[in-house]
Design a protein that fits this description.
single chain; 217 residues; mainly beta; Chondroitinase Ac, Chain A, domain 3; seven-stranded antiparallel β-sheet; 44% strand; globular
Length: 217
Amino acid sequence: MIRSRFFRSLLLVVTAVGVMSCTDSIPTQPVAPTTADNGLLSGLVGGVVNLLGDVIRVIGFQTDPNGIPVTAVQWSPSHVNQVRSVSATIGVNGGTLAIPGSDFTISFPYGALTSSTNITITSDGTGYVTYDMQPHGLTFRKPVVVTQRLNNTAVYGTPKALNSFGAYFAHDLLDLSGILRALEIETTTIFSNPRSGQAEVETWLLNHFSRYMLASG
């Protein structure tokens, strides 16, 4: 059972990274068109892809009702801070939403949702890498995969990039400076840039919706 869950998670990570990668992919079966209106990308049904680089760290899931101390990660000066939002209806067949200006995608595998659901993802303009994912409280039968590029974040090229992860918060926080208390740290896989070896991209496995951010420990 553990091995089965591992391979299912690995397949989700490979699929999500393939969406973000600029490298060629080698599909094992026909792949639907990858662009549509409102940032919705057609659901990818799997395939063998060239990953951006090697997996250099996996940060395991953690949860604590008293909160886990984390620090919110800021965008770098190269990033334009503004509110960006994408919405689309995702059904049983799955699909992918993208916010290119925030270097963000979220991929829903087949069967993650049991019925068609309107999904809205908002990247805020505070200067921190944070996302409001709605509808709040939505749960998934299979984990969905967030893919976040790091090259426009403040941790890129620093040791903190190897200790950055997806963190879950139940409520909006008015002040994102200082030490914050995350209810969950999501399973996070960090991939290297194949040329520089820098931590370049990471994926988060999410089981439910609310508010998430890129954080470091």
